[in-house]
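TA notes. Do not distribute before section.
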Amino acid sequence: VDSPVPMNRVLLRIKVLNLAYLTVSIPLATLLFCFATSMLFQYTVVNTTVCKVYNFCPSVSAITGISPQCYVWRMGVALHTGPRLLLASLYPRYHKTKAAHVSALRRPLFLQLTRACYGLHLVEALSLVGVTYISNRENYEVHEKIFIIFMVSSLLYMLGTCITVNMYENKTETTMEKKSKRLKMSLLALTLAASGGMLYFFYKHRIHCVELAFSWFSICEYVICFCNMAFHYTLVYDIPNEELLVGLPQAISLDKSNSTKAQ
């Protein structure tokens, strides 16, 4: 485990909890804004599909792919991506500290899973950027493929994370970590159920043009979105008191001080 670096002068100090809250609240707020304004002012546009059947709930792609909502959504995704990638880099280090609480036999698998989860997290975050900036109205085929990458990487990341947290020895877990594990497992189960529903209703809509099928597809899609956000927010239960610091390491400060005196 990396040893802590003493800081002589701290320029910036941010609680991980606050950064996680910001990272989740930005896309959540922009998604709700896009949904509300689309339903109020562009109801017919966002609920019209190629099947020309009645629908009451638009998809995420529909509400974030029209103007001016697309600009708000793109701004929200852009603002949250930097902090999200930073938070993603914390989990491998967190899991590294927990490796000692995993049995020696399963430890190599545990460490491989943590690295795989980090890679999947990066793919998920970057594919979200891709699916945001290439809308279904501009290029449906590319948008659809990137969306599939997002869904697969998101599900695999959630599954991999749930496997890793269940490899710890229970007696070493804090109350917050146990709560985080239960929440992660529940969110994974709900996401898998919603993903199954989404595939079923997409088939009903695309192949048979069943009335309301696309609305139920969209509802499943929103459930997945909210579960995804909540899953990433469980970071605050795993590392609730940690902070991110930007400052001058003490060793560098002493070297500068000594060199100044020598001159």
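Switch to the second chain here.
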Amino acid sequence: MKNIGRAPKRRSVVDITQLSPAAGGAYQLLDSGDGRKLEQFGDRLLVRPEPQALWRPEKPEWWQKADAIFAGKNEDDDGGQDGGQWQLKTNKPDAWLFSHDRLTFQCRLSGFRHVGVFPEQSPQWQWLERVINAAPKPVRVLNLFAYTGVASVVAAAAGAHVTHVDSAKKAIQHARDNAQMNNVAADKIRWICDDVRKFVGREVRRGAVYEMIILDPPKFGRGAQGEVWKFFEHIHELMIQCESILSDNALGLCLTSYALRASSLSLHGLLHDVMAKRGGSIVVGELVVPQKNSSRALSCANFGIWSAHDKLRP
């Protein structure tokens, strides 16, 4: 009898990649624990719910310096759909500026714990900028569920022509403010306030094409006309449509998921199914924020990136 009690070796089916923001930037995860996290956004210290922080804080004295603390009604859902409120601890205004490389974005305290910038996505912004800079122009980028437009501004600043789609008027205005703040030419970004599924369906019928597509869909959403978005019900159909409007010179597609049950393995299977006929390569994994001066880290989201060529991989 051989190998009793020894598990057989198995080859990993899919390589899981971790992408993290560069150390020393305007965003830092300072501490975490007891279901919360202490973060530095530029000159603001914020405390927000973090269900994955299953441990005790390492630096409890730092938490007393927070400028604002978010108290959610439902701290277990990934999107903060039930909302909550910020408890202000200082007299600092609820809007401030946040810098990324040469760009500046406006942060605001919202009723859904978010501040308008997701620093864990910065490796994706860098990938987006690198691919656009290296590509022949024009590069047409479609940004879906585009929110406050950080990726749209990054792409436009790199020389792309961007179509920015979001169903919320407030988010569109916030994104416009970000573009104006960075002196993005008016003809570089086309602003579309519409339901994403409706818009993409129209683009398919029109025969529109893009070289890059970015998607950051919520777990659940509702459009201005009552349209319902459910990630697990609608993502496959939407991805099929997105593939059909990628041009023959397509460069890449980036999907980010904050839906907790959608693992990076699920995203790999989805991208492999939808993009198979185009070849290229797929990288999937987690957007991870390391804690400053600590061995701890928090996984914020899963991602999947399809690149037309290996040299375009993140």
